Amino acid sequence: MPEIRLVELTRDSRAPEVAQVRELLLEYGRFVLAQAGPAHLCFGTLEKEAAALPHFYLDQGGGSLAAYIGESPAGFVAWREMKPAIAPDAWEMKRLWVRPETRGHSLGRLLTSAVLNRARAAQRTAVYLDTIPASMSNAFRLYLDLGFKPCAPYNNNPVEGVVHLRLSL
After folding, report:
1. pLDDT digits (tens, 9 = 90+) for 94-115
2. Domains defined along the chain, listed by start
3. Which pairing describes strands 90-98 and 72-81: parallel, antiparallel, or unpaired?
4. pTM for the complete prediction?
Protein backbone atom coordinates (compact mmCIF):
# COMPACT_ATOMS: atom_id res chain seq x y z
CA MET A 1 0.00 0.00 0.00
CA PRO A 2 1.46 3.38 -0.96
CA GLU A 3 1.97 6.09 1.62
CA ILE A 4 -1.07 8.41 1.70
CA ARG A 5 -1.04 11.70 3.54
CA LEU A 6 -3.33 14.69 3.84
CA VAL A 7 -2.00 18.23 3.75
CA GLU A 8 -4.12 21.16 4.84
CA LEU A 9 -3.37 24.40 3.04
CA THR A 10 -2.66 27.33 5.32
CA ARG A 11 -1.73 30.95 4.80
CA ASP A 12 1.89 29.78 5.23
CA SER A 13 1.76 27.00 2.62
CA ARG A 14 4.68 27.08 0.22
CA ALA A 15 4.11 28.26 -3.35
CA PRO A 16 5.04 24.92 -5.01
CA GLU A 17 2.54 23.07 -2.80
CA VAL A 18 -0.19 25.62 -3.52
CA ALA A 19 0.54 25.32 -7.26
CA GLN A 20 0.09 21.53 -7.09
CA VAL A 21 -3.21 21.88 -5.28
CA ARG A 22 -4.33 24.63 -7.65
CA GLU A 23 -3.81 22.20 -10.54
CA LEU A 24 -6.01 19.61 -8.80
CA LEU A 25 -8.80 22.17 -8.49
CA LEU A 26 -8.45 23.14 -12.15
CA GLU A 27 -8.56 19.45 -13.15
CA TYR A 28 -11.87 19.23 -11.31
CA GLY A 29 -12.99 22.26 -13.34
CA ARG A 30 -11.99 20.62 -16.62
CA PHE A 31 -13.96 17.53 -15.59
CA VAL A 32 -17.01 19.71 -14.91
CA LEU A 33 -16.58 21.44 -18.27
CA ALA A 34 -16.61 18.08 -20.04
CA GLN A 35 -20.04 17.21 -18.62
CA ALA A 36 -23.23 17.73 -20.60
CA GLY A 37 -25.51 20.60 -19.64
CA PRO A 38 -24.84 23.99 -18.07
CA ALA A 39 -22.14 22.76 -15.68
CA HIS A 40 -19.63 24.97 -17.51
CA LEU A 41 -21.21 27.98 -15.82
CA CYS A 42 -19.13 27.48 -12.69
CA PHE A 43 -15.71 27.28 -14.38
CA GLY A 44 -15.09 31.03 -14.06
CA THR A 45 -15.69 30.71 -10.32
CA LEU A 46 -13.30 27.76 -10.18
CA GLU A 47 -10.57 29.77 -11.86
CA LYS A 48 -11.01 32.50 -9.24
CA GLU A 49 -10.97 29.93 -6.43
CA ALA A 50 -7.81 28.35 -7.81
CA ALA A 51 -6.05 31.69 -8.26
CA ALA A 52 -6.85 32.69 -4.67
CA LEU A 53 -5.86 29.41 -2.97
CA PRO A 54 -5.57 28.93 -0.05
CA HIS A 55 -7.18 32.25 0.92
CA PHE A 56 -10.39 31.73 -1.03
CA TYR A 57 -11.67 29.14 1.45
CA LEU A 58 -9.82 30.36 4.53
CA ASP A 59 -11.41 33.80 4.15
CA GLN A 60 -14.85 32.12 4.17
CA GLY A 61 -14.25 30.38 7.49
CA GLY A 62 -13.17 27.13 5.84
CA GLY A 63 -10.14 25.51 4.36
CA SER A 64 -8.83 22.99 1.87
CA LEU A 65 -7.02 19.68 1.94
CA ALA A 66 -4.92 17.81 -0.57
CA ALA A 67 -4.31 14.08 -0.55
CA TYR A 68 -0.90 12.85 -1.65
CA ILE A 69 0.20 9.39 -2.64
CA GLY A 70 3.89 9.47 -1.94
CA GLU A 71 4.97 12.87 -3.24
CA SER A 72 2.26 13.08 -5.92
CA PRO A 73 -0.86 15.19 -5.40
CA ALA A 74 -3.86 12.93 -5.91
CA GLY A 75 -7.00 14.56 -4.47
CA PHE A 76 -8.57 17.74 -3.20
CA VAL A 77 -11.50 18.93 -1.09
CA ALA A 78 -12.54 22.28 0.36
CA TRP A 79 -15.13 23.61 2.77
CA ARG A 80 -16.53 26.93 3.88
CA GLU A 81 -18.99 28.29 6.39
CA MET A 82 -22.61 28.35 5.34
CA LYS A 83 -24.36 31.72 5.48
CA PRO A 84 -25.94 31.97 8.96
CA ALA A 85 -29.34 32.85 7.47
CA ILE A 86 -29.31 29.55 5.56
CA ALA A 87 -27.67 27.16 8.02
CA PRO A 88 -26.02 28.59 11.14
CA ASP A 89 -23.11 26.59 12.52
CA ALA A 90 -22.81 24.50 9.34
CA TRP A 91 -20.24 24.04 6.60
CA GLU A 92 -20.55 23.43 2.90
CA MET A 93 -18.15 20.87 1.43
CA LYS A 94 -16.89 21.75 -2.05
CA ARG A 95 -14.89 20.42 -4.98
CA LEU A 96 -14.10 16.86 -3.94
CA TRP A 97 -11.77 15.57 -6.64
CA VAL A 98 -9.60 12.49 -6.94
CA ARG A 99 -7.40 12.10 -9.99
CA PRO A 100 -8.65 9.20 -12.14
CA GLU A 101 -5.28 7.45 -12.10
CA THR A 102 -5.23 7.45 -8.29
CA ARG A 103 -8.75 6.17 -7.68
CA GLY A 104 -9.15 2.92 -5.79
CA HIS A 105 -7.23 4.07 -2.69
CA SER A 106 -10.32 5.43 -0.86
CA LEU A 107 -9.03 8.99 -1.16
CA GLY A 108 -12.54 10.40 -1.61
CA ARG A 109 -13.64 8.75 1.64
CA LEU A 110 -10.45 9.88 3.39
CA LEU A 111 -10.85 13.50 2.27
CA THR A 112 -14.57 13.62 3.07
CA SER A 113 -14.03 12.03 6.48
CA ALA A 114 -11.30 14.57 7.23
CA VAL A 115 -13.72 17.43 6.53
CA LEU A 116 -16.40 15.78 8.68
CA ASN A 117 -13.91 15.29 11.53
CA ARG A 118 -12.87 18.95 11.32
CA ALA A 119 -16.53 20.00 11.31
CA ARG A 120 -17.20 17.95 14.44
CA ALA A 121 -14.11 19.38 16.15
CA ALA A 122 -15.32 22.89 15.24
CA GLN A 123 -18.72 22.03 16.76
CA ARG A 124 -20.59 22.41 13.48
CA THR A 125 -24.12 21.01 13.42
CA ALA A 126 -24.17 19.88 9.78
CA VAL A 127 -22.26 19.64 6.52
CA TYR A 128 -24.00 20.39 3.24
CA LEU A 129 -22.95 19.70 -0.33
CA ASP A 130 -24.37 19.47 -3.81
CA THR A 131 -23.46 16.91 -6.43
CA ILE A 132 -24.59 15.56 -9.78
CA PRO A 133 -25.26 11.83 -9.47
CA ALA A 134 -25.36 11.31 -13.24
CA SER A 135 -21.74 12.42 -13.69
CA MET A 136 -20.39 11.97 -10.16
CA SER A 137 -21.94 8.62 -9.28
CA ASN A 138 -19.03 7.34 -7.15
CA ALA A 139 -19.02 10.51 -5.06
CA PHE A 140 -22.80 10.38 -4.71
CA ARG A 141 -22.67 6.79 -3.45
CA LEU A 142 -19.86 7.73 -1.05
CA TYR A 143 -21.91 10.58 0.41
CA LEU A 144 -24.91 8.30 0.93
CA ASP A 145 -22.67 5.64 2.52
CA LEU A 146 -21.37 8.27 4.94
CA GLY A 147 -24.90 9.19 5.99
CA PHE A 148 -25.69 12.26 3.90
CA LYS A 149 -29.40 12.65 3.16
CA PRO A 150 -31.19 14.63 0.44
CA CYS A 151 -32.27 18.09 1.56
CA ALA A 152 -33.94 21.17 0.13
CA PRO A 153 -31.77 23.30 -2.17
CA TYR A 154 -29.65 25.72 -0.17
CA ASN A 155 -28.07 27.51 -3.14
CA ASN A 156 -28.95 28.56 -6.67
CA ASN A 157 -26.91 25.92 -8.49
CA PRO A 158 -28.19 26.09 -12.10
CA VAL A 159 -26.77 22.71 -13.11
CA GLU A 160 -29.35 20.24 -14.32
CA GLY A 161 -29.62 17.13 -12.17
CA VAL A 162 -27.96 18.61 -9.10
CA VAL A 163 -28.86 16.98 -5.78
CA HIS A 164 -28.45 18.76 -2.44
CA LEU A 165 -27.32 16.70 0.55
CA ARG A 166 -26.95 17.29 4.28
CA LEU A 167 -25.28 15.34 7.06
CA SER A 168 -26.31 16.17 10.63
CA LEU A 169 -23.38 16.02 13.03
Report:
1. 999 999 999 999 999 999 999 9
2. 4-168 (3.40.630.30)
3. antiparallel
4. 0.93
